[in-house]
Amino acid sequence: MVFSFFKKIAQKMPERPAAKPRGDSLPHPAKAASEAAPEAVPEVAPVSDANWDLDFSRDNTQPNGGYGIEIYEETDPFAEIAEHAAILYANGQDDAARVTLESSIRNNAEPGAIKLWAMLFDLLRLKGERAAFEALSLEFARVYERSPPSWDMEAVSSKKAGHAVGGQVALQGVVAGDDPVFDDLLQALSSGSSRTLDLGRLAGLDAEASAKLAKLLNQARRRGLAWSVHGAEGLASRLSNRTIMGQAQGEPLWLLLLELYQYMGREAQFEEKAVDYAVTFEVSPPSWEGLKTPPLPAEEPVPEEVEAESVAAVLEGEILQGNLKEVARHLHEGEDCRLDFTRVTRLDFVSAAALVNLLKTAGASAVVIHHPNRLVAELMRVMGIDQVARVELSRH
Question: Tell me, what DSSP letter sits at residue 318?
Answer without folding.
Answer: E
